[in-house]
Design a protein that fits this description.
Elements lengths: L1 E6 L7 H15 L10 H4 L4 E7 L2 E10 L5 E4 L3
Antiparallel strand pairs: 1-2, 2-3, 3-4
Length: about 80
């Protein structure tokens, strides 16, 4: 089954997904977008990075980073 769980962007299962997303973004847009997770630890207490797993295997990821109490940005969704 599919599960979604909180994780850290540096988690071993997250790194290959983020690398694949970065390669795709670089090929399509000329920038890998890695700056979107820069300084994650400084905002981790008010943000969420999550891994999607299918039968235990990491198959997707994404992050939500709030700007303020009402507006947030979805980052690194893959």
């Amino acid at each position: 089954g599919l599960t979604i769980e909180p994780a850290h962007p540096d988690a071993p299962d997250a790194v290959p997904l983020i690398d694949a997303l970065s390669a795709d973004l670089a090929a399509r847009f000329g920038s890998d977008g890695r700056g979107g997770l820069a300084g994650w630890d400084a905002v981790a207490d008010r943000s969420l990075f999550a891994l999607a797993r299918l039968d235990g295997v990491a198959v997707g990821c994404g992050a939500v980073h709030p700007f303020d109490g009402e507006v947030a940005e979805i980052k690194r969704m893959y």
